């Protein structure tokens, strides 16, 4: 049964649906659950969490690329600190089941494309076109900003 409240006040709708689901869980017969939207919202939760983790990892990579592309820039320390922050935020939201849905090589390519769109008034230093990273590796507490920077440096072609 569609619920007009879903379109008018999503917070009130979610509270009402949660109450109805609790009543069902307690054994009560409830006929007015908005199943279509409940199912849609449950699916959206997973997608949203994955997008958040992807975004944090991509931002960590973008900031690592900035550090390496413009090593003398006055914002270098800020960028380096933001790598740490983004990796921490990604780790806090990362669940092992997400690993199969995270293509870190693709995220790196997207970060590299974003970097090349920046107007920094100076061309970037050479950067690798791709790197290899496993989700479990980058999500581990032992993997920090210096590890990400070293991984990118290691992928540079020999000079």
Considering the chains and any ligands shown, give keywords for the structure.
Malate Synthase G, Chain: A, Domain 4, single chain, mainly alpha, 2 domains
TL;DR of this structure?
The protein is mainly alpha-helical and 159 residues long.
What does this structure look like?
It is a single chain. The protein is mainly alpha-helical and 159 residues long. It folds into two domains: 1-33, no CATH class; 47-154, Malate Synthase G, Chain: A, Domain 4. It is 64% helix and 0% strand. It is built from seven helices and no strands. The chain has helices at residues 5-8, 10-25, 35-69, 76-93, 104-117, 135-138, 145-154. Helix 3 runs antiparallel to helix 4 (76-93) and helix 3 (35-69) crosses helix 5. It is elongated, with a radius of gyration of 21 Å. It starts with a helix and ends in a 5-residue tail after the last helix.
């Amino acid at each position: 049964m569609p619920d007009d409240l879903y379109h008018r006040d999503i917070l009130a709708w979610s509270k009402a649906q949660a109450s109805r689901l609790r009543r069902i869980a307690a054994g009560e017969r409830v006929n007015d659950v908005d199943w279509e939207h409940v199912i849609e919202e449950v699916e959206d939760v997973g997608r949203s969490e994955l997008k958040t983790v992807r975004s944090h990892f991509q931002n960590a990579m973008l900031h690592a690329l900035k550090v390496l592309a413009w090593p003398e820039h006055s914002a270098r320390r800020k960028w380096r600190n933001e790598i740490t922050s983004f990796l921490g935020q990604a780790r806090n939201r990362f669940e092992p089941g997400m690993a199969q849905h995270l293509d870190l090589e693709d995220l790196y390519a997207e970060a590299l494309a974003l970097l090349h769109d920046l107007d920094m008034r100076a061309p970037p230093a050479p950067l690798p076109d791709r790197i290899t990273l496993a989700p479990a590796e980058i999500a581990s507490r032992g993997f920090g900003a210096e590890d990400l920077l070293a991984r990118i440096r290691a992928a540079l072609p020999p000079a």
